[in-house]
Write a structure and sequence with these properties.
Elements lengths: L4 H24 L6 H15 L8 H10 L4 H42 L4 E5 L5 H8 L4 E6 L5 H9 L3 E4 L6 H6 L8 E4 L4 H11 L7 H11 L7 E5 L3 H13 L6 E5 L1 H12 L28 E6 L3 H13 L7 E8 L2 H9 L10 E9 L2 E10 L13 E8 L5 H13 L4 E4 L4 H15 L15 E5 L5 H5 L7 E5 L7 H5 L1 H25 L11 H21 L5 H10 L2 H12 L1 H9 L9 H18 L3 E2 L9 E2 L5 H7 L9 H11 L2
Parallel strand pairs: 1-2, 1-4, 2-3, 4-5, 5-6, 7-8, 7-12, 8-11, 12-13, 13-14, 15-16
Antiparallel strand pairs: 9-10, 10-11
Helix pairs in contact: 1-2, 1-4, 3-4, 4-6, 8-10, 11-12, 12-23, 14-15, 18-19, 18-20, 18-21
Length: 676
């Protein structure tokens, strides 16, 4: 933190003025016999000097000097005193400026933020300062600090219009919350470094299950519970702790406020894929011809080959979301190569988010790069094979995790080998060290450069996304051609803003999807009811009944256009568990891919309905697998078993009642397009 030098100098000058006034007073009142009077007159003169009205005027001081005979030291002192009398009022003005600056900053902040949403920030984590800095632009803030706050930080809070409350160590959170009028806040951000602390804070804000509604209402005013109209954001970057937070929130059956789990790395990656989608590779402009296929015969077979260099939190989220956003067709191959020098230490914690059964398909191998030098890797291929198949799906997925340092020749050799076997279509460089990142970029440009490329064409056509922690000129430095697909993603840019936190556009898509899903359930549920629980086997009669119901529903939709009851949309959303909401949000993020398929690739919702449904089902299956689910004919969400993690062929055979749900996103997209 920078010291406020102006403030320091002001006090030094003021002290010097006071000392000079006192010394001049000692000399001027030397002949005064009454000691008390001598001291009081001296102090009075010093004080009045700051008011531009000293008792010892400059002329009187000079006259006294002449009458007393002068001398070197008295002369120096007198002249310094005369100068100090001039300086003293400026010290007063400076002090008053400092004194009124704090309330002025606060008033200025309040005026500028009075119409903005009011947010309460609880907890002390490394992300708190980033959230405060960003949210202060869009919101009124009240920040509860749990440690000593510097004067500079206090001033910053005042300037931003933020109210600061200090919670001391011996003060329980419940007591601290009692002192706040929680009803005035639109949202609450729990961003403590400890996820367990955030859970405890969440418990204090949510209703008490052991109390009645009346008791909870009374308790709200007494202990800090909040209303259903407010929103809670809980920061958590750990998948295991996120699961605990979900379970606790879902266990509260009383009416409760909406809640979202905030993972800033997940938010940053979502932003990356929305701004730079996976289908931006030039090869995807065709119909699969880059792989030597006839577009007419192989429509939509766009394979994805992603390379991730650096497997920190950002890299892990990139892989997970690639399995969602990378579903460009129903039968394509998604291959992801991940490179990190610490891979053996990382892979364990990452694989923990999957079902333990997936380890049956995880293989350890080694690639020879130079004579007598092999680089180890882990490989996971889905779908697996065998009698105990737990991960049925269409298309195929290959994940390879390489122990490779991006700055070594081994990495260069491996990268080139994988690129020759299956050309990369998207690259993400997520290295923490700037020098290493720059060196890696230079290497990638050499390895990816097209041979015999025309001078007026880009030498590199593979999109390369570089993750940086702050804005740099890296794109300008390393871009050779205006069409080079090199982009920079500043990890923290716009991620901590209220717009990113609320994520209103994507969440609204998810809410509408969920609402439409519920409407379809109301149509299908009566038909499927006799078949549930093994009462009747799925047969052709069931399929005929479903087809008739779906046809009637589509006719109704075409005649009346789909209308959304906003109140019911919100109510239905709040009735959902957190995981189901996150699943709907993942689908909403993929909606841009679906729009690309319909608008750019000319898929017809009528003619290509089955293919589009198959794409959505595959996307959903991959999402469920990344969340730790596996197939089992007996659905049990508690142990993450689901009876729809199947290939499209098996789904049609075993769960035909669910197939129409996979068309829901396309219907919504088509409906929203028609309404424009």
């Amino acid at each position: 933190m920078k010291r406020n030098k102006y403030k320091d100098y002001l006090w030094y000058v003021a002290l010097a003025v006071f000392v000079l006034c006192i010394l001049e007073g000692i000399m001027y009142y030397h002949d005064t016999e009454n000691t008390f009077l001598k001291i009081s007159l001296n102090i009075q003169n010093a004080i009045k000097a700051y008011k531009i009205d000293p008792d010892i005027k400059q002329a009187e001081a000079i006259r006294f000097l002449n009458e007393s005979g002068g001398g070197f030291l008295p002369s120096v002192l007198t002249y310094l005193y005369c100068a100090s009398v001039i300086v003293a009022p400026f010290c007063t003005i400076g002090a008053l400026t400092i004194l009124i600056s704090k309330p002025a900053d606060y008033i200025h902040g309040i005026i500028n933020h009075r119409s903005l949403p009011h947010i309460l920030i609880l907890g002390q984590g490394k992300q708190q300062e980033s959230f405060v800095d960003a949210l202060a632009k869009d919101c009124q803030l009240t920040v509860v600090e749990t440690s000593k706050v510097t004067e500079e930080k206090k001033k910053k809070y005042l300037r931003d219009g933020a109210k600061l409350i200090v919670k001391y160590d011996d003060m329980p959170w419940a007591v601290a919350l009692k002192s706040l009028k929680l009803s005035k806040f639109k949202a609450f951000l729990l961003c403590d470094e400890s996820a367990l602390e955030n859970v405890e804070l969440l418990k204090l804000l949510l209703p008490n299950e052991n109390c009645s509604k009346a008791d909870n209402k009374e308790d709200a005013g007494r202990t800090g519970k909040i209303s259903t109209q407010q929103k809670i954001y809980v920061c958590c970057n750990d998948s295991s702790m996120a699961e605990i937070i979900r379970q606790y929130y879902d266990s509260v059956k009383s009416e409760k406020p909406d809640m979202s789990i905030v993972d800033v790395n997940q938010m940053a990656v979502s932003k990356m894929f929305l701004e730079h989608p996976l289908y931006m590779h030039p090869d995807y402009a065709g119909g699969g011809e880059s792989h030597g296929a006839d577009p007419a015969e192989n429509k939509g077979k766009w394979d994805v080959h992603m390379g991730i260099i650096g497997f920190g939190e950002f890299g892990r989220q990139t892989l997970l979301q690639c399995l969602n956003m990378g579903v460009l067709s129903a039968d394509s191959h998604i291959c992801i190569d991940v490179f990190d020098k610490h891979m053996p230490d990382i892979i364990g914690s990452f694989m923990n988010r999957f079902s333990v059964d997936i380890l049956n398909y995880l293989k350890l191998g080694a690639e020879e790069v130079f004579q007598q030098e092999k680089v180890p890797y882990y490989e996971l291929e889905l779908p697996g094979t065998g009698k105990n198949e737990r991960f049925g799906m269409d298309g195929s997925v290959t994940l390879r995790f390489w122990k490779a340092d991006a700055q070594t020749l081994s990495f260069h050799k491996i990268f080139k080998q994988q690129h020759e076997r299956m050309p990369f279509t998207y690259l993400v460089v997520a290295l923490g060290d700037t020098a290493c990142m720059a060196e890696t970029l230079l290497a990638l440009k050499r390895l990816l450069r097209q041979k015999n490329a025309p001078k007026d064409a880009p030498a590199i056509t593979v999109p390369i996304i570089v993750r940086t922690k702050s804005e740099t000129d890296i794109v300008k430095v390393y871009t050779e051609h205006e069409d080079d697909l090199l982009f920079e993603i500043v990890q923290n840019k716009d991620i901590y803003s209220y717009k990113a936190l609320a994520n209103e556009e994507i969440v609204e898509r998810a809410k509408i999807f969920n609402y439409r899903y519920g409407q379809l359930y109301d149509v299908i549920s009566p038909i499927i009811k006799p078949y549930k629980g093994g009462k009747k086997p799925f047969d052709d009669q069931l399929k005929a009944l479903l087809e008739q119901a779906w046809a009637e529903e589509r006719q109704r939709e075409n005649e009346n256009k789909l209308q959304f009851d906003k109140a019911e949309v919100e109510a239905q959303w709040k009735r959902m568990d957190i995981f189901s909401r996150e699943s709907s949000i993942a689908q909403a993020l993929h909606q841009d891919v679906k729009r690309w398929l319909i608008e750019d690739k000319h898929y017809s919702p009528e003619k290509d309905k089955a293919e589009l449904q198959k794409i959505e089902h595959r996307r959903w299956v991959l999402f469920m697998i990344t969340q730790g689910f596996r197939y089992d004919k007996n659905r049990d969400n508690d142990v993450k078993d689901h009876d729809c993690i199947l290939s499209w062929e098996d789904l049609e055979k075993n769960r035909p009642d669910t197939m129409e749900y996979d068309f829901t996103p396309y219907f919504i997209l088509q409906n929203s397009t028609d309404s424009k």
